[in-house]
User: Fold these one by one.
Assistant:
Number 1:
Amino acid sequence: MMNMYEKVMESVDYIRRKIDRNPQVAVILGSGLGNLVDIMENKEYISYEDIPNFPRSTVAGHEGKLVFGNLRGIEVLAMQGRFHYYEGYSMKEVTYPVYTMKKLGINKLIITNACGGINTSFSPGTLMLIKDFINLMGDNPLIGHNDERFGPRFPDMSEPFKLEWIEKAKRIAAQLGIGYGEGIYAGFMGPYYETAAEIVSIGRMGADAVGMSTVPETIAANYLGMEVLGIACITNMATGIQKVKHSHERVVETAQKASSNLCKWVEGIIESMDL
Ligand code: HPA
């Protein structure tokens, strides 16, 4: 049986045979935030289902493909559709694409998501720069045998989101006139939206927002030695803070509304990236 390293290398070989490009940065697009792909140029696509060993996407509103293209002349790999732990994937499957990106030679990763706001200075539509995370998923992708070819047994996690990159993102936002918040993202297992009591306790822990993704990919990327920037789109206030019940449709709708600002911001950030 192939080990994970061999599987990832087989996926990478397949992608390389199909597409002769060298992306400098990868972007994971959250629910309703897929529009970035619309502003990419010279696009080439690969469906997840065609890539050997790649997991497959199951959630409505999540497309499953890798999109290679340019943004402002920079080669970008966008992941349209991600894998969530709540879908029943293992943490290794959830993060498999990040391992693949790294072995494609990508060292920078921008992660976006849709999430619930806990910090009451936020409102639906706020874009939050993620400063740090709290892993409440009860699992993580690094459990089990460690293959040193990927990264160290005990990786440092003191700067999961690259400070320099956060500072740059703030400068770009100011230049573009894009408003944003900043805060700590808690990763909750899902798929149910948290209870009001859970939100109170997660807020006391220090989280400003809560969602069901991002944390596994951020852990894996740091382990692999990649630099990560995280931008969360607050699509609703978390349970007990907002008065109405949650709906996935509303989450996607709000994310879509915020998407044009997010796209502009990400484009600006990529354009000013040190390669
Ligand atoms: N909680 C968890 N995940 C989410 C939420 C939320 O309120 N909104 C969008 N994703």
Number 2:
Amino acid sequence: MDKKLMTIDLNSQILIEKAEKDGVETMYDRKNGFKSQCGFGLQGTCCRICGMGPCRISPKTPRGLCGADEHTIVGRNFARMVAGGTAAHSDHARDIAHTLALSSRDGNYKIRDEKKLIELAIDWGVETECRDIYDIAHEVAEIGLMEFGKPHGVSIFLKNAPKVRQEIWKTIGIEPRAIDREIATVMHSTHIGCSADIDSLINLSLRTSMADGWQGSMIGTRFSDIMFGTPMPTQTEANLGVLEENKVNIILHGHEPTLSEMIVLAADDPELLALAKEMGAEGINLSGMCCTGNEITMRHGVKIAGDFHQQELALVTGAVEAMIVDVQCIFPALAYVADCYHTKFITTSPKAKITGSTYMQFSEENAYKDAKKIVKEAVLNFKNRKPEKVLIPEFKSPATVGYSIDAILSQLDRVVNFNVDKTGTVKPLIDCLKSGVIRGVAAVVGCNNAKSVTNKNHVTIMKELIKNDILVVSTGCGAQAAAKFGLMDKGAKKLCGKGLATVCELVDIPPVLHMGSCVDISRIVDIVSECAKYLDVDMCDIPAVGIAPEWMSEKAVAIGTYVVASGIDTYLGIAPPVTGSKKAVEILTNGLKKEVGAAFTINENPDELAAIIIDDIEKKRDHFEKIITEKINLSQV
Ligand code: XCC
Ligand code: SF4
């Protein structure tokens, strides 16, 4: 396949061509190299769980050596994907919690959102009267840390869900206990000779995913807001055109804000700015990629260099002095690509060491000092740039980002209720939904996947939804696709249906709202839960859906699963490796509906998927309008 047809991003197309000329291999070459992928792997019917395997299921060999059938094998593989994803998000959250425990008035990590801390402290029964804010923070951090390994009880966050939802979780036994325990239980239950029952394996997957969504991710988002500030709308730009010819270009890639927040500070350090001048640069230009990019653009307006599929291409510009990474979604290939240019590929976490990179360990205890050292390395590298190898593609789009729940609600409230105290309730949002001006809300989230054309599913689906008056919220690399294609620009209201366009105009928002990194999908679950509680209905009654058009990571599998467990229908643009078991497919796409009120829908054609979603939202609306009317009638009796 022509490599340039594998992405719809024009900058990427230009750089794929440049990579070819420079003799640099990228993911797009490797994709062509893999003529076809293993059918057993694609369907989830290959088992490598014990040393007698791999066992592959086919009509001729319907059982593995131990007798496990396709349902058991698919179910175990699925559960392990969920556990992998939950581990990644939650371990990120754990580091944030440790950092909160380190926070101090004169240290590197401070409390920036006292209000949010106090609210959480009160919710968790922590004494707040007449206490130093840092003492409160440390006690809250300690409680958060206990969520990972507490011997008794279930997630501390479950009580925030609507009562009916809590009942469902209790009845089907998916209330997550300690986070680490859920992950360990899945690893144990999927060991050879344990669980061999598809219903039970999916039930276990649901409970573990709940430890991600209703525990780890919530700790990650809340503690990050407390320490680094709750995002508020801010202006930025997106795509590789944000790189600057005359400045030291540093790209931050990965996930945890503990590192990136310090780099943002260090990039402003007068000493380093002076050094940049000395090196002949006009300054330091910081930009972000993947979820780290989302974290720092949400809080500081740092420009977005690009998404998951652009990590190699960013280096192909020849204009990047350093790519600084921490954990998750980092191509090992960056080591080879960096070698072809002057770029320093700097790894910083003992959890993600990569052969061929420059390892400069970052520790929270010495955060600013470490960050300065890392930025200095980048600045010093400016002199090694080879101008003849530089090509910065021109495209970039303006975007307004920073839509935390707090930001969305306060903005809506100001317009609808002329409320200027900036608190806000969900009422205006619900009024928009009730009246039907907005037909529904769709969270379009997740990765890029080489199985589809990069960005195509995201952009096609988002455009279709907003055209049909469905408000889109986004996180992860999906948010970056939206930003790159101008959908997070307020001007994008011209692409909306009449209802949504009016709301965008009145409230002064873009039709696709950036809600953060993938850990921040907890914000989306929170707002659906708040709306349901306000109306005294269940989360599955709200016309809201989740969509992962180009998902690829285990984290995405965990997310999709907890979103469904929360009662929110979820649509996938890439088939997960479960199709080898008819029973698994039936449970995930239908059976769960009876249990949790939501299920998965899979369709790899983005136009078809968009049509299905719009149709389903309209059906959900009928039900929504009916119960709202019933409630109104009841209250009038
Ligand atoms: Fe990774 Fe989070 Fe996926 Fe992007 S969206 S490819 S997981 S960076 Ni989370
Ligand atoms: Fe084969 Fe069973 Fe071992 Fe899996 S657990 S590799 S199916 S023998």
